[in-house]
């Protein structure tokens, strides 16, 4: 049975974030046993006479509200962990959103936590299992060959989260290397959508978003290199934000992956954003100062046209039209105008720039198995990127940088005229779990992609990815433009 009513409660609030790009979405069983990093039987005993909150109160409360309850003595951090863990154990067999837990460590950290005014004091948090390492926990990149690898360090991003009072209780599901817009992999299996278990939650931060949509935690972190925070947010009925490149602690300043989170409460994301701002003097952070303070004085552009000329569903078009109607009713000037960027060319460059991911995967697999990877060791796309990287032209960096610079220039000029740009987040509602990432005919083509010349390889990768890209053609522009 589908959940009811989360999305409509925050739709109006979602316009409060000042960002250069606004991408609004709409709402629409195989399972793994949780892999605990340590035994899940805890030695802590909760004082039965201590104050506590009901499960219902926990489920409906924001992270900000939970932190206030802890400070008021209405509940303890350990009790909040107990609520979250109980929800995971009850629902995760159907969702497969959480892939590892650190319950004992979390309870110990809760016992040692000191109140220094942290905004999320004592609040349980789930972090994405990819790209956000925490020492002692799973660190596989979704590769079967690395199924037993654990992280030896904790990233600066995760450390910043902990300094804000969050207690990390586990890691969430993602596809291999985060390469696709659904969450499914040989290693971790399918992440099911809480609204309808037959649907996928989206990707690549799919497990994180499912955890939030299911009320396991009010906030869960993810990362976004092409839509991985926003796509599952659209398909799972939560708020997703990809911050400007370089403004978040630990992120690069050049177009790549951005770390942030998804939530059901806009204030949580606002507070989190403020707390995660990089302390470095990044140009991206300075860009935030240029956001107009009086938005009603500037035009908002909107478009429902797919950047790669693929169909866009009535659901997606109507979602944008509803937002446009709302904005106009509040006195905003909204105009219909499409992005100036050639979306097809952009995606070819996006794939060209991504081929190194395949080579990086081969290094990891070779380190684990003592040999180069084969087609059967990884996903079809990981294999294809690896093969294409072997034939990369020597001037590939120049080609990619020139195109990235062009896109940046085009969108910078566009945003000078239209500071806000409204599009669908996804072109369709959540796909079924039976819908593959790549059609069978293209899997066979990817298997033998090493026989093609480089231009043919990139075109084959584009053609194979188009089945999935057709569902989510809008989000990549924000990543490439920075």
Detailed description of the structure:
The chain has a four-stranded parallel beta sheet, covered by helices on one side. Strands 2-3-5-4 form a four-stranded mixed beta sheet. The protein starts with 5 loop residues before the first helix and ends with a helix. Residues 1-33 and 35-48 have low confidence and may be disordered. The protein has 482 residues and is α/β, with parallel strands linked by helices. It is built from 18 helices and 13 strands. Helix 6 (156-163) links the parallel strand 4 (124-128) and strand 5. The longest helix is centred in the last third of the chain and has 22 residues, at 396-417. The protein has two domains: 18-287, Amidase signature (AS) domain (Amidase signature (AS) enzymes); 343-481, no CATH class.
Give me a quick take on this structure.
It is built from 18 helices and 13 strands. By secondary structure, the chain is an alpha/beta fold. It folds into two domains: 18-287, Alpha-Beta Complex (Amidase signature (AS) enzymes); 343-481, no CATH class.
Keywords:
Amidase signature (AS) enzymes, 2 domains, four-stranded mixed β-sheet, 40% helix, 11% strand, disordered N terminus, four-stranded parallel β-sheet, alpha/beta, 482 residues
């Amino acid at each position: 049975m589908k959940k009811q009513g989360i999305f409509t409660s925050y739709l109006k609030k979602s316009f409060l974030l000042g960002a250069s790009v606004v991408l609004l979405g709409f709402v629409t069983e195989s399972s793994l046993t949780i892999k605990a990093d340590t035994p899940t039987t805890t030695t802590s005993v909760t004082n039965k006479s201590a104050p506590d909150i009901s499960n219902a109160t926990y489920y409906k409360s924001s992270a900000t509200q939970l932190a206030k309850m802890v400070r008021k003595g209405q509940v303890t951090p350990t009790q909040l962990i107990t609520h979250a863990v109980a929800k995971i154990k009850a629902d995760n067999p159907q969702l497969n959103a959480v892939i590892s837990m650190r319950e004992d460590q979390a309870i110990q950290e809760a016992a040692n936590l000191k109140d220094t005014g942290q905004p999320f004091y004592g609040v349980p948090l789930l972090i994405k299992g990819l790209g956000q390492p925490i020492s002692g926990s799973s660190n596989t990149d979704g590769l079967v060959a690395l199924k037993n690898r654990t992280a030896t360090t904790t990233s600066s991003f995760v450390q910043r989260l902990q300094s804000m009072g969050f207690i990390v209780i586990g890691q969430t599901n993602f596809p291999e290397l985060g390469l696709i817009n659904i969450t499914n992999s040989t290693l971790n299996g399918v992440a099911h959508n809480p609204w309808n278990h037959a649907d996928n939650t989206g990707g690549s931060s799919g497990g994180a978003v499912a955890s939030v949509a299911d009320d396991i935690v009010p906030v869960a972190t993810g990362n976004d290199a092409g839509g991985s925070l926003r796509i599952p947010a659209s398909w799972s009925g939560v708020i997703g934000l990809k911050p400007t490149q370089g403004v978040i602690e630990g992120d690069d300043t050049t177009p790549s992956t951005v770390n942030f989170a998804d939530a059901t409460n806009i204030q949580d994301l606002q507070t989190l954003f403020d707390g995660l701002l990089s302390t470095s003097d990044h140009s991206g952070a300075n860009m935030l100062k240029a956001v107009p303070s009086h938005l009603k004085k500037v035009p908002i552009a909107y478009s429902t046209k797919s950047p790669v000329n693929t169909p866009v569903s009535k659901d997606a078009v109507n979602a944008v039209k509803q937002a446009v109607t709302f904005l106009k009713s509040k006195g905003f000037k909204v105009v219909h105008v499409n992005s100036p960027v050639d979306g097809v060319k952009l995606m070819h460059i996006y794939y060209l720039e991504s081929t190194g991911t395949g080579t990086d995967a081969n290094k990891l697999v070779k380190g684990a198995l003592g040999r180069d990877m084969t087609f059967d060791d990884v996903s079809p796309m990981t294999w294809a990127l690896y093969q294409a990287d072997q034939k990369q032209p020597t001037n590939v960096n120049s080609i990619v940088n020139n195109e990235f610079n062009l896109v940046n220039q085009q969108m910078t000029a566009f945003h000078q005229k239209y500071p806000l740009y409204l599009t669908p987040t996804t072109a369709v509602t959540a796909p079924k779990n039976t819908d593959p990432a790549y059609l069978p005919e293209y899997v066979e083509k990817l298997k033998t992609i090493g026989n093609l010349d480089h231009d043919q390889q990139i075109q084959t990768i584009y053609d194979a990815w188009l089945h999935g890209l057709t569902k989510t053609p809008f989000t990549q522009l924000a990543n490439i433009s920075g």
